[in-house]
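seq as requested:
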Amino acid sequence: MNTEELLMVEAYSKLPTFKLRINKALDIIREGLGKGTAYVAVSWGKDSVVLLHLVQSIEPNIQAIYHAHIERDLISNYSQTIEAYTSKFPTNLSIQETWDASGNIAKNLDVYKDFPVCFLGLRAEESVNRKRSIRKYGLIHQYSSGFLQNTWRICPLGWWNWIDVWAYIFTYDLPYLNAYDDVPINSVNSRTTCHISKSVKNMTQATRLEDIKKNNLSYYNYLKVNYPEMF
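struct tokens:
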């Protein structure tokens, strides 16, 4: 974050709008915690770090579950960021290693059976599909069918903007991955590329691979050598 960006975020963090966003998120978290045994899905991207800190401000011992990509430190300083966060904010963290991200992690690991309430750091701003989902189902949603039937998805950051996220990180001095320093903070592409499927080949994957090639050539070359079927 350069000086101009830092000053912009700092100024925004003092506005009533930002305070209202935080208070609204906390209200949603309180309601979500009342639905049952809950956990925070944390990827250690900027949104999930903010979400984890918000939930911990109400329930310090909340279970945090990280589906850890085995190659995470090839992508960014994940281990360093996790250590920095958990040293500063003691966290009930479960790390579950995975080599893939095919969209069925929660199903395969049966997390939903022990924790029927899941806090997610999804934001509508990130994609059309996420906006459509949040608009249709709301910030607090109970699944009515499928393997997640009767479980809950809680998205306290659903209508937050990028500047809300960075203002919160600035205000509470939260550690974040250095991969974010490679793109403008107001970019929709200001996202980490940790979980990428090794078993799915489609246009979405092709786009993500192009992003990896642009932002992390060494990781792209690693994937190309070790997982040629992805290309």
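The chain has eleven helices and six strands.
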